[in-house]
Amino acid sequence: MRILNLDGLYFTETFRKLGHDVLTLGPFAACDIQLEKTLPLSELIALLQSRKFNPDLVVWGDICRPPSVLGIESLPAVTIGYSIDQYCNPWHTPYAAAFDLMLVAQKDYLPGFIEANPGYELEWQPLFCHSHKDKDFRKERDIPVSFVGTVTGSINKKRKQFLDEFKQTQPVFVTQGNYVPIYNRSQIVVNQSAVGELNFRIFEAMACGAAVVTEDTTNGLHDLFTDGEDILLYPRGNPKAAAAVARKALTDPEKLMELAARGRRKVVNNHSSLIRAKYILKRATDIISSGPTWRKRNPKAARRTLGYTYTMLAVDEENNLPTDMRNYYATVGQKMITEAT
Predict the structure, then answer these.
(1) Handedness of CA 128, 132, 133, 136 (dihedral sign)
(2) Secondary structure letter of residue 211 according to DSSP
(3) Pair 6, 121 in one domain
(4) Which residue positions in the chain have pLDDT lower than 70?
(5) Domain boundary among 241, 270, 299
(6) Which of 74, 115, 237, 297 has its Cβ near the most Cβ atoms within 10 Å?
(7) 246 and 145 in contact (C-beta within 8 Å)?
(8) Which residues contact residue 118 at a Cβ distance below 8 angstroms, ignoring those fewer than 6 apart?
(9) Is the pTM of this model over 0.90?
């Protein structure tokens, strides 16, 4: 299968290992074609023609930025999107109109997608570990508790306060950057989220063999894991309780190691990029054989809804877009709405 991958590179390595021809476009240097500006449909088509690349499947991965390529709702290929951070990107909801299937990582947001987008294919697919790098290398676990991630300057305004209060009763090693070596040395990885979402840290830390202490929240947490069996939970927003859970777990290293091993097996067997990539390929095959999807049966409605997406991007002050980009999205959005009316 020829796969055009846009923005997030979550599955490209796996797609290629499974024998598929993949072309990646996005803002990153690791992309086959690094984009320095938003690419309209006409330029995308010209680019694909110059490469003699006629995709069977287009996969868009959420990177918490506006889409790098516009107009994919007009392509004949199957289109599948993966929305990860819905809580800080409300434009994802109308953006589902661009896809034959939109996968939603945060379970609690799925009903809102369904209510706003009758007729679209929408499914809950939780996040995952990265099969090619998130591994347990059997290192000595000489770090009792760690946290790897952005603290100061994070969109999660409560994170620094949480970690500061956690440290008052339980030491925690805090750093940024490559998490794999740190998680491989950690007995426990403490996790905290912005709005109760299930973030990548949960799956990554488990896959690296660390026990995860995370907040008791929703978004499918209890569908995936069991407190005291493969994960350890604390009341959301309570760093002192989180520290107490970690401190108690450290008093029984053997039991903690067994819990971590169960968590790792569950994630590796059920929630890896390999599992998600295979599922995307299966659903693409299903869609190809099932006949025209909502997007293809209702092209005007799809484009009108996409026009609302770009209008939202133009007026949303939280996304920190420069003025020229806001004007661009406003112009594109209004044009699409007018033409589809």
Answers:
(1) positive
(2) E
(3) yes
(4) 153-154
(5) 270
(6) 74
(7) yes
(8) none
(9) yes
